[in-house]
Design the sequence.
């Protein structure tokens, strides 16, 4: 949680910025102004970033992009970094990418998302967008890990598999042991892929529910409290209660609230409201590290 | 001192940002990324800003411009804010000004500076630039207050001036008292205007000396120490010793060192080096408030 403020930063909250570490991937969502320094405060090098996902082109969600991109070059990061954003924001992304003079050496790849879109991150992850309901074009992101197999030690033992054969049955799907072919399905069970969703600036909408459906972790905007529901509707935002209802209705496992209005310096106000509706909820604080729930068994 | 880092921010130093308050004016120099939040941390509203002076278009000196400009609109600032920068940087300033989607309502006026240029700030202040010697087009700034008159209480009394007549003699240059016309020069003495200079990224050059000549306060880059003199030359920067020599040679009254390399987390290293050459020197720390020396008598 690199920053949790909405429109205006405060003494205690930087503008947005959320880094999701997932095996070898580092997905940076909505780098607001100051994200470069927040990474330093969190003890994370920009080389941890493999992908940047921008929900929309309001400043609090993207003005940190120039600093992060320039820092990739300055630090000599070698791997490619892909940047996603709503396709209609191209003109802003072009300006942000060349906002000041620098020696661009990093391998930055722009991949605009066309509303409801899906891209492959790697062998096991796909990233999808849905168009949300905000004052400007905005998308949310959903990351889905491919389902896999979980090896079962008792079955491995019963089948007589050990040592390098365990790796082979995983890679090749079956392995010959003592004259018999053992299939992966015999020594393993189904393992559901983990799922993550990132829902920023939006009113309540079906697209938000689709993004959040059954995810293990949902990071959701929670700009206002229910008492400010009219403001939330007018400016295209959610209340803490709405975020909690979204999590409940979508069958989310853990909810993280963020993107707080400066009206409420104490994030526990949001927590208290959401908790009445949805139990496993965290109101993010600056530089918090929040884990995905452990895989379901 | 809103930020004192050079290329990369650190845990303890934000990117550049320097606000000079001068009567009703607020001159913001080199807003690096995060300046908007640093203002909040310093307890200063963006409405305090009347003019923004950018020395050059490297990111650490200008990536905070979008946030500051957008905040002027968000906060409904009514007075005009003029932005100065080297004219060759126009394309970057245009991108920074419209880097993301917002409702531009503030009265922002762009006034590019053509190398050696001078503009009028108000009745008593002029702002000048000189071209420095950096890796890209860069200027330094010099602010000069018009010389004036300091009223002398004993002379006022001797001439029989009191109450509203004191204001009139200042405004009108003379006033009639008991049948006699008293001129301002009779009841006052010459008052030298205060002077300020801002010298950022540059190698040692005559232009830096011209900017700093006889100023009361010089804010000067001090990226490296003398032991790194080759680096300083190669990258177009000054060492603490060079900044001190500049202040000495230019007849500066007080020197403030800033724009420190991340190599040296402790600013006292710079201070120790500079102090051997120039006595009235401060190595800036984040959010320090440093006063111009009192007017000379």
Sequence:
């Amino acid at each position: 949680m690199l920053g949790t403020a909405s429109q205006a930063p405060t003494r205690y909250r930087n503008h947005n910025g959320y880094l999701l570490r997932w095996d070898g991937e580092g997905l940076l969502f909505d780098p607001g102004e100051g994200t470069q320094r927040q990474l330093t405060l969190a003890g994370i090098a920009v080389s941890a970033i493999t992908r940047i996902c921008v929900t929309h082109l309001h400043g609090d969600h993207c003005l940190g992009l120039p600093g992060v991109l320039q820092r990739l070059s300055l630090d000599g990061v070698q791997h490619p970094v892909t940047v996603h954003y709503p396709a209609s924001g191209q003109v802003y992304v072009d300006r942000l990418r060349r906002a000041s003079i620098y020696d661009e050496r990093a391998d930055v790849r722009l991949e605009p998302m066309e509303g409801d879109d899906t891209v492959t991150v790697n062998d096991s992850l796909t990233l999808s967008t849905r168009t949300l309901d905000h004052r400007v074009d905005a998308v949310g992101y959903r990351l889905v890990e491919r389902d896999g197999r979980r090896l079962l030690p008792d079955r491995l033992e019963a089948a007589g598999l050990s040592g390098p054969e365990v790796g082979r049955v995983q890679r090749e799907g079956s392995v010959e042991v003592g004259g018999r072919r053992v299939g992966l399905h015999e020594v393993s069970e189904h393992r559901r892929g983990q799922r993550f969703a990132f829902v920023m600036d939006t009113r309540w909408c079906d697209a938000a529910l689709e993004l959040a459906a059954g995810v293990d972790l949902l990071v959701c905007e929670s700009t206002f409290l229910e008492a400010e529901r009219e403001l939330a509707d007018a400016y295209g935002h959610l209340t803490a209660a709405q975020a909690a209802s979204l999590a409940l209705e979508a069958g989310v496992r853990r909810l993280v609230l963020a993107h707080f209005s400066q009206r409420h310096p104490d994030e526990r106000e949001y927590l208290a409201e959401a908790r009445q509706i949805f139990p496993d909820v965290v109101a993010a604080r600056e530089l918090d590290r929040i884990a995905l729930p452990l895989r379901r068994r």
About this structure: The CA atoms of residues 18 and 201 of chain B lie 14 Å apart. Chain B touches chain A at residues 7-11, 14-15, 33-34, 36-37, 40-41, 56-59, 61-64, 66-67, 70-71, 74, 89, 92, 95-96, 98-102, 136 (CB under 8 Å). Residues 240-250 of chain B form the longest helix (11 residues).
